[in-house]
From TrEMBL:
The keyword Endoplasmic reticulum applies. Coiled coil: none annotated. PPIases accelerate the folding of proteins during protein synthesis. Residues 511-538 are annotated as: Disordered. It comes from Machaerirhynchus nigripectus. This is peptidylprolyl isomerase. Residues 20-108, 132-220, 244-331, 355-443 form the PPIase FKBP-type domain. Pfam families: FKBP_C. It comes from the Eukaryota. One of its GO terms (cellular component) is endoplasmic reticulum.
Length: 538
């Protein structure tokens, strides 16, 4: 009678051979004395056949029923269930008992379909694979017995393809549908939905069932535009970015599976760029429009609006990009200084002008509220001569026409502030500055171009009065002493806010026309006299 000994049975046996199934198995065929008469191993290929359809000797047809993939059976087949009294001339003698050592490699049925087993699925699945989508995934490809035939992990590169349009074997086209990014599933494909009777001519033999362990990393459709998810929008948003604006923002850049590829935070510096001008990838150009200062948003960019099929650096080809951005500030190159008055005294008659000496308090911050500097913390005012270049141009403009006691906020774009370079360690490059100012004191300046003026009539013998030793020459010491006396007695006034010695030396140098360190009566002229002579010459 037929003898079947189960020498190895795998722990997992999801499916056993039934009549009508197609099997692939290896075997050793021998006579009872151990003499081998046949072996599939010697041929280097499995024996492939339908079970229960008369394609095998009767004993093998029966012995294979109930086998699991990877099961090993030792089968004894009597002649009546083998080749009987005739045998096989030259191979198997008449009335021979046959012994077969059988290892089942593969099993499928013509009615099989693609089997999908999901063993991990993310909690959030906003989108699943549909026909015509483009996907990037990793996989291990094995046969039913677990033998590895291919792996994208070994190549350290995802498999990138369209789904449902014939770029894949039919079974994989079906098995990928409905997957989420991050999902892991096992896709089992019968050969008639894979590489069929011929295999692939390389690693995959004919009639082989295939098992793919797949993790989906990326998913998009060529028709996709960018997707924007607002995470934080400030309650107050007076202005939104437009084409041509210059933005400073922080970002984390990841792939769809969460892999970080870049971060401005790690460099401790914002990314600064124009918007809508092609300075950044097309998807980011679009995604940065309409943002407020302080806004946080997520911008999801398909590869055709990102780095395309080639990728860049750590970004693989055909990758969907996810940018979590935080807008720090923005401005337009056409912006001027913005002034908002919060308080103005009722008796506001004297307004600041160029040349005036001002004392004021301020808090300086960035648009996002980051404090840069404060005179209050130093316990003293900031003192300048307005319009003399002692502060950035935007501050010179913002302090104009201000009265003592007034409080205002001055917003200065970078081209009127510290420009692209900023101040190392203090003010970032291309930063918009916000100054909250209170003017505490104003000393009126002199007319433009004057460093000293007389409060009364000028002596007709001015040179003689300065030349105290009457030697016809005035030295710097004499000149300085005379000017100081005029100021102290109220007869003259120096431009406020400047160093006395520097002003006097500058005035003296203007009079010392031949540069010999002495001023003679011929060289000495008042400013209105100089202007008259220049006019006469013209």
């Amino acid at each position: 009678e037929l003898g079947v000994e189960r020498r190895f049975v795998p722990e997992s046996c999801p499916r056993a051979v039934r009549p009508g199934d197609f099997v692939r198995y290896h075997y050793l065929g021998a006579f009872p004395d151990g003499t081998r008469f046949d072996s599939s191993y010697d041929r280097g290929t499995t024996f492939n056949v339908f079970v229960g359809k008369g394609q095998l000797i009767a004993g093998m047809d029966q012995a294979l029923v109930g086998m699991c993939v990877n099961e090993r059976r030792f089968v004894k087949i009597p002649p009546k269930l083998a080749y009987g009294s005739e045998g096989v001339p030259g191979v198997i003698p008449p009335d021979a008992v046959l012994h077969f050592d059988v290892l089942l490699i593969d099993l499928w049925n013509s009615e099989d379909e693609v089997q999908v087993q999901t063993y991990f699925k993310p909690e959030k699945c906003p989108r699943t694979v549909q026909v015509s989508d483009f996907v990037r995934y990793h996989y291990n490809g094995t046969f039913l017995d677990g033998t590895l035939f291919d792996s994208s992990h070994n190549r350290m590169r995802t498999y990138d393809t369209y789904v449902g349009i014939g770029w894949l074997i039919p079974g994989m086209d079906q098995g990928l549908l409905g997957m989420c990014v991050g999902e892991k599933r096992i896709i089992t494909i019968p050969p008639f939905l894979a590489y069929g009777e011929d295999g692939d001519g390389k690693e995959i033999p004919g009639q082989a069932s295939l098992v793919f362990d797949v993790v989906l990393l990326d998913l998009h459709n060529p028709k996709d535009g960018i997707a924007i998810e607002n995470q934080l929008v400030p309650e107050s948003c007076e202005r939104r970015s437009q084409t041509g604006d210059f933005l400073r923002y922080h970002y984390n850049g990841t792939l769809l599976d969460g892999t970080l590829f870049d971060s401005s935070y790690s460099r401790n510096r914002t990314y600064d760029t124009y918007v809508g001008k092609g300075y950044v990838i097309a998807g980011m150009d679009e995604g940065l429009l309409g943002v407020c200062t302080g806004e946080k948003r997520r911008i999801i960019i398909p590869p055709h609006l990102g780095y395309g099929e080639e990728g860049r650096g750590k970004i693989p080809g055909s990758a969907v990009l996810v940018f979590d951005i935080h807008v720090v500030d923005f401005h337009n190159p056409s912006d001027s200084v913005s002034i908002t008055v919060h308080y103005k005294p009722s008796n506001c008659t004297v307004l600041s002008k160029k040349g005036d000496y001002l004392k004021y308090h301020y808090n300086a911050s960035l648009l996002d509220g980051t404090l840069l500097d404060s005179t209050h913390s130093l316990g003293k005012t900031y003192n300048i001569v307005l319009g003399s270049g002692q502060v950035v141009l935007g501050m010179d403009m913002g302090l104009q026409d201000m009265c003592v006691g007034e409080r205002r906020t001055v917003v200065i774009p970078p081209h009127l502030g510290y420009g692209e370079d900023g101040v190392e360690g203090e003010v970032p490059g291309s930063a918009v500055l916000v100054f909250d100012i209170e003017l505490l004191e104003l000393v009126s300046g002199l007319p433009e171009g004057y460093m000293f003026v007389w409060n009364g009539e000028v002596s007709p013998n001015l040179f003689e009065e300065i030349d105290q030793n009457h030697d016809g020459e005035v030295l710097l010491e004499e000149f300085s002493e005379y000017i100081q006396t005029q100021v102290e007695t109220g007869k003259g006034k120096l431009a406020p806010g400047f160093d006395f010695e520097k002003i006097v030396k500058n005035m003296f140098t203007n009079q010392d026309r031949d540069g010999n360190g002495k001023v003679t009566a011929e060289e000495f002229k008042l400013k209105d006299q100089e202007a008259k002579e220049e006019h006469d010459e013209l």
